[in-house]
C-alpha cells in the first residue's frame, strides 16, 4: 500500500531548527594559533575578515621599537656605573688623605714632646762624659734614651763626618792639610732628628783642607855652605 504525502501531518510541527556545528579543535586551521581553552569552539564567522599573520611585506622594517628603549637603559646604566666608580675613587683618596693627615698630627705631637726632652738628654750626655752617670741614675738614663730611639729619635753629629750645612751649625773654623774637604772635627752639641724632621742642628767646629807648604830649593835659598865665603873657595 502506497503511502501518500499528507500535508496535514506537518501542520502541527514548527519550523525545523538549523543544525549547529561546533568546532572543538584546539588549533585554528586558518590562523595556526592555539585557541583558548573552553567548553566548545564556535566555528568562525564567514562574514568576519580573517586575521592575517603573514610576515612583513617588502620594504617594511622589522626593527622593534623596544630596542631603542633598551639602548637608553644600558646607556643610563653605564653612566651610573661610571659615577659610582668615580665616587669610590674619590672616597679612597679621601681616606688616604685623612690617614696621612692623622699620621702627620701624631708624628708632630711626638716630635713636640721629644723636643722638650732634648735638654735632659744633653745633661745625661755631659754627666756620662764626666763619669757621673752611674748606678741607678745610669739605668734610668739608658731606658729613657732607648725609649726615645724606639719612638723615632735619631742623633747625629760626630767627629769625622762631612760638614752638611742643613744639619750642622758651624761655630768654629780651622784649616788643615789632613782633611780632604770640610769636615766636622769638634762636636759642641749633638743634633737630633725625629723621622724626617730635624729637631735641632748640631753645633760643630769645621776644618777645611789647606794645601801643604811648598818645599824650598836648597840651591836658591837656605844657609851658606860651611868652609868660608866665595873668596876662600877660589883661593
TrEMBL record:
Biological processes annotated in GO: protein folding
Domain of life: Bacteria
Chain segments carrying region Disordered: 1-59, 208-235
Classification via InterPro entries: GrpE, GrpE_CC, GrpE_head
Keyword tags: Chaperone, Coiled coil, Cytoplasm, Stress response
Compositionally biased tracts (Basic and acidic residues): 14-28
Main location, first listed in the record: cytoplasm
Location(s), subcellular: Cytoplasm
Coiled coil region boundaries: 70-104
Task performed by this protein: Participates actively in the response to hyperosmotic and heat shock by preventing the aggregation of stress-denatured proteins, in association with DnaK and GrpE. It is the nucleotide exchange factor for DnaK and may function as a thermosensor. Unfolded proteins bind initially to DnaJ; upon interaction with the DnaJ-bound protein, DnaK hydrolyzes its bound ATP, resulting in the formation of a stable complex. GrpE releases ADP from DnaK; ATP binding to DnaK triggers the release of the substrate protein, thus completing the reaction cycle.
Similarity comment: Belongs to the GrpE family.
Oligomer and partners: Homodimer.
NCBIfam families in alphabetical order: PRK14164.1
Record-given protein name: Protein GrpE
Organism: Amycolatopsis vancoresmycina DSM 44592
Lineage, uppermost ranks: Bacteria, Bacillati, Actinomycetota, Actinomycetes, Pseudonocardiales
Amino acid at each position: 500500500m502506497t503511502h501518500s504525502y499528507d500535508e496535514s501531518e506537518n501542520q502541527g510541527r514548527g519550523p525545523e531548527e538549523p543544525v549547529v556545528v561546533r568546532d572543538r579543535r584546539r588549533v585554528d586551521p586558518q590562523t595556526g594559533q592555539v585557541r583558548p581553552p573552553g567548553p566548545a569552539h564556535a566555528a568562525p564567522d564567514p562574514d568576519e575578515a580573517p586575521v592575517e599573520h603573514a610576515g612583513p611585506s617588502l620594504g617594511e622594517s622589522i626593527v622593534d621599537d623596544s630596542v631603542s628603549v633598551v639602548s637608553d637603559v644600558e646607556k643610563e646604566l653605564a653612566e651610573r656605573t661610571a659615577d659610582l666608580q668615580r665616587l669610590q675613587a674619590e672616597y679612597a683618596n679621601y681616606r688616604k688623605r685623612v690617614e696621612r693627615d692623622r699620621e702627620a698630627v701624631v708624628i708632630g705631637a711626638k716630635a713636640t714632646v721629644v723636643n722638650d726632652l732634648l735638654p735632659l738628654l744633653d745633661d745625661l750626655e755631659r754627666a756620662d762624659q764626666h763619669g757621673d752617670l752611674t748606678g741607678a741614675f745610669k739605668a734610668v738614663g739608658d731606658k729613657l734614651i732607648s725609649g726615645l730611639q724606639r719612638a723615632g729619635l735619631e742623633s747625629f753629629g760626630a767627629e769625622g763626618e762631612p760638614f752638611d750645612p742643613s744639619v750642622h751649625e758651624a761655630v768654629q773654623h780651622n784649616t788643615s792639610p789632613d782633611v780632604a774637604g770640610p769636615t766636622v772635627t769638634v762636636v759642641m752639641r749633638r743634633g737630633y732628628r725625629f723621622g724626617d724632621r730635624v729637631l735641632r742642628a748640631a753645633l760643630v767646629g769645621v776644618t777645611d783642607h789647606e794645601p801643604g807648604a811648598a818645599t824650598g830649593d836648597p840651591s836658591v835659598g837656605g844657609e851658606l855652605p860651611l868652609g868660608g865665603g866665595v873668596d876662600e873657595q877660589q883661593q
